[in-house]
From TrEMBL:
Gene source species: Trypanosoma cruzi (strain CL Brener)
Protein name as it appears in the record: Dispersed gene family protein 1 (DGF-1), putative
InterPro entries per the UniProt record, alphabetical: DGF-1_b-sheet_dom
Cross-referenced Pfam families: DGF-1_beta-sheet
Domain Dispersed gene family protein 1 beta-sheet: 315-469
Length: 523
């Protein structure tokens, strides 16, 4: 058995990739309890990519209780075959879909799926946000079921946040030969209503409603001794496991205790030095730089926030510093917003010459960030470390998530000698949740095409995104939104009081959604 348990994995295109044919013959693969995210933005990001799979002779491939964020959760690229009592299962996962060139889906088939000889495929108990549960790429691809005991279960899934269809397939996509069974039921929308199955499945598919007990959906019948229909519970045969009587049991993971590590509590500052390279000790609570010059492409000041002692308050202060000729100041989070006791970041009275400040990934919860009083001149593009990206921007956000946090950009005076750049630039998805805020105010930009370029924006759960009282001498727009943006659940997007000779105050080049008491304030 191959176990992949309780990991946090982030990849550019794939979080987990099986690039060759996977044959599971009597053994098993279990992918459980992981956080799987993708950071790329080319439109084909996959949490799990399976090139081809052949599960047989009682083998199993189980994807269970994972948190996934990508365009597709599990993509079967080539033929998938499950035979002779094999089991293929995607269950109890949380999936957040990223929409690019095609609609996201939890499970995506770009070739046929063949089930025979008592095999089972189960997609059950998943929570899917802004995506379909199941999608098939082309009409010629089929789900083929044959043989006694062969069963497909598509049940107890829930869709939230969005208008995606439940399953993107048509009746001809499914070929069902009795006595094989295809069971569908109790799949819900966010508001608790059952989804519509009209025009999706062919005759012969067994539909059931919530509140009824369907034995195939409730139990893995090959391992079930009996079913109590009053409680819809399963009694397992000897050697079968869990509430559903599955053929495997996930072993408890044993995490050895972490040795207590002393935190460096030094609060002194680095003062009036010129640095061309440096290495930081992340396991300390205070970082202070006063009047320091960071010069050249080797002067990369990286704060890996999730490697810091977040159980204690963190304070990072840079005052009166200068960044020259490719120097980079960057703050990097992780795959999801980590718990913290508070992270205070202050960058003030800063001079920048062909340099950039970068925030990347999901920052810890309860961050209080301010970048203020910046004098910037961009003479040439700046290379971003560990990426292929280059930028003319003063501030770059890479797939940033703010959770119960704030980011203030204020009193930035920036001039670019190369037209076509973006003063503030967000690549990937910028997400504000949990009462977070991002304010850009009282800034002045000259020589830029857009004041703030946002590739994709999601503002929800009482959060605020605001551009206030900024000035551009010329350019195309104050706010350029390349793909869709959404404002929901009592959140606000404000573009107010900005001035300058621009073609558009806001330019929206994609779908935008405002719902659940969300607000737009453009004036």
């Amino acid at each position: 058995t191959l176990l992949l348990l309780d990991n946090r994995i982030e990849g550019n295109r794939y979080a987990l990739h099986f690039p060759v044919v996977v044959v599971v013959d009597g053994g098993g693969i279990i992918v459980k309890g992981n956080v799987l995210r993708t950071a790329g933005n080319n439109g084909a990001e996959l949490a799990i990519c399976v090139h081809a799979v052949d599960v047989k002779n009682g083998g199993y491939f189980d994807v269970e209780n994972n948190a996934m964020s990508a365009v597709v959760g599990v993509w079967f690229v080539k033929m998938a075959t499950v035979s002779t009592a094999g089991l293929l299962r995607v269950a109890d996962c949380t999936f957040i879909g990223k929409k690019y060139f095609f609609d996201p889906a939890l499970v995506y088939l770009s070739n046929s799926l063949i089930l025979q000889g008592g095999a089972q495929w189960r997609v059950e108990g998943n929570n899917v946000s802004a995506a379909s549960v199941l999608s098939i790429s082309h009409p010629q691809q089929k789900i083929r079921l044959s043989g006694s005991g062969t069963t497909v279960v598509l049940a107890h899934n829930r869709q939230v946040e969005g208008s995606a269809v439940f399953a993107k397939l048509l009746p001809p996509n499914t070929i069902l030969a009795s006595p094989a069974r295809f069971v569908v039921g109790c799949n819900l929308h966010e508001e608790g209503k059952e989804v519509s199955y009209d025009g999706v499945f062919p005759e012969g598919v067994e539909l059931f409603r919530c509140g009824t007990c369907n034995e195939d959906a409730a139990c893995y019948l090959p391992g079930t001794e009996s079913v109590d229909r009053s409680s819809c519970s399963c009694s397992c045969k000897g050697g079968w496991h869990g509430a559903s009587c599955l053929p495997f049991e996930v072993p408890d993971t044993v995490v050895p205790p972490v040795a207590e590590r002393a935190v460096d509590g030094d609060t002194s500052c680095v003062v009036n030095q010129t640095l061309t390279s440096l290495t930081l000790n992340m396991w300390k609570t205070h970082h202070c730089f006063l009047g320091v010059t960071f010069s050249g492409v080797g002067a990369v000041l990286t704060f890996s926030l999730n490697s810091m002692p977040l159980h204690l308050p963190i304070n990072i202060t840079l005052t009166g510093c200068t960044f020259l000729y490719g120097a980079v100041l960057q703050f990097v989070g992780g795959a999801e917003a980590a718990e913290s006791s508070g992270v205070l970041i202050r960058v003030g009275r800063t001079v920048m010459r062909s340099s950039v400040v970068v925030f990347a990934l999901a920052l810890p919860q309860h961050c209080d960030i301010a970048v203020t009083e910046v004098d910037a001149v961009q003479l040439s593009v700046v290379d971003i470390p560990d990426t292929t990206s280059r930028t003319l921007s003063v501030l770059l956000l890479r797939n940033v998530v703010l959770a119960a946090s704030s980011l203030l950009v204020s009193n930035v005076n920036a001039h670019s000698l190369r037209y076509g750049g973006f003063g503030l630039y967000s690549v990937g998805t910028l997400t504000l949740v949990g009462g977070s805020s991002l304010y850009a105010r009282y800034c002045s930009f000259d020589g830029y095409e857009h004041l703030f370029y946002v590739y994709r924006l999601s503002v929800r759960n009482h959060s605020v995104f605001a551009l206030l009282n900024n000035m551009m001498s010329s350019g195309t727009s104050f706010l350029y939104q390349h793909q869709e943006f959404s404002v929901s659940n009592h959140s606000v997007l404000r573009v107010v009081g900005n001035s300058g000779s621009v073609s558009y105050a806001t330019y929206n080049d994609g779908l935008w959604t405002v719902e659940q008491s969300g607000w737009l304030d453009w004036r």
